[in-house]
What does this fold into?
Amino acid sequence: MTGSRARCPHKLRKQLHQATTQLAATEQRLLVVSQDLAASRSFVAKEDVDGQQIRTVFNDLNEAVDDHTFLLHAVPDPPESATLDVSSALALLSSHELVRKELYHFVSAALVQKMPLMDFCAFLIPALLNVVLLRVVFRPFIPGLDMTRSAHLHAFYEDICRKEPQDRAARWRSITYAQACPSRDDAALVAQAVDLFYSALESSLPHIVSSDAADTLASLRTQYSSAAAKIVRDALKLQDLAMATYISFDYRLIAPPVYSIVTPSQTEVAELVKRCPHSLPRTDPVEDGKICLAVVSFGLLASKSTQRSPSDTVERAVTVMKKASVVAATCRWTRAHTSS
It folds into this structure.
């Protein structure tokens, strides 16, 4: 009995120490949560951009692409009856890596369709400009960042959006966007994009219009490069607004990848090529459908996450503000062979 009584104070001191340690850990967790909540409230309270501002910049960008396409129609027009032929298509595809990598399927489908050259050029010019904007501005997580790091950051951000409330995901995106590429040089990005676009035009159009087009395009570059530079700056402004600020909705560009299935709720077809020269494998029983060949104008999507309590899953309400416009082709699907 005496030994048992002697051990009791030691046991009580041990329990008291454990309780004190647990209390300190709980207080620390509460402090972290309180700081995180305060930071989230502060971040949300700083909302100084509304959705209308983003939509205005977006509409200005699409309209500027249309206007620039119209200006470039000063290139000598081909005869109305002229269509894209094999030799012109092959020369076009070998003229510039941008055409070969990004618009190969569009050129191939236009050749099979025997698309009139006037129509082909009307789609090729904005498609090239949009490809340049995607490559330089919109595909990287932040303009100027290499695509390997961008892919990791995009994947991480998507994972956060699936698991966390919108304000936390947006705060991570905003902080990361501001710090991920400290060496970003907007002037260099603008010059790179303008040179890439006009180099692609000067290399490709003479093969399908006339040899005189090269001189005409060179003069147009001098005349209209400032307008093209403004388009790139508008694209950078749009990306900064959508990625670096907190808004009640998240805004994302709609630009369907080449050969992706056309989603009618997000995409409208500006031109439909009757049959694509290739068949694509699918595992479902659908026999045919429409696929994207080139993006003529961008679309805009707004989304908002909802989470009723910490234990609930994050759901995302999506609104299409404007559909993307694409050149598409009908395509016959083949059943994919899957291993058992």
Strands lie at 250-254, 267-273, 280-282, 288-297, 299-306, 315-322, 324-335. The first strand starts at residue 250 and ends at 254. The radius of gyration is 27 Å.
